[in-house]
Structure prediction request, 120 residues.
Amino acid sequence: MSESITLDNIYQKLKRIDDKLDQLIQEKTTNIIDPNMLDSLDVMTLLSLPDHLRTSALTLFELKEATADEVSEVTNKERAVESNYLNQLVRMGHVEKFRNGRKVYFRINEKSNINRSNLS
Prediction:
């Protein structure tokens, strides 16, 4: 039973850290980046993203639109982790989130400057 409690404590601490990171990213995004630039996900923006978010964004770009589960299959991360990363990209304005039936899909923001020629 103590192992279960320890794992639960670790999970709770990781959740709080993740929430704090989301808050820092949101503050940094709104304080440093011009709001008009949030629409674009160009090469320079991709390079400025942390590795884990860049991997998710590039995978989503290749898939065009996908669920967190589909992205996680390509990135070999847990679905919940990938969902968190994709939602961070949504909050940053680089990715759109939409529902089709019961599934939630993500795609690169249509206003984005990114295209295949920029990544080749």
Summary: Confidence is low (pLDDT under 50) at residues 32-40, 113-120. The radius of gyration is 16 Å. The first strand starts at residue 65 and ends at 66. The first helix runs from residue 2 to 32.
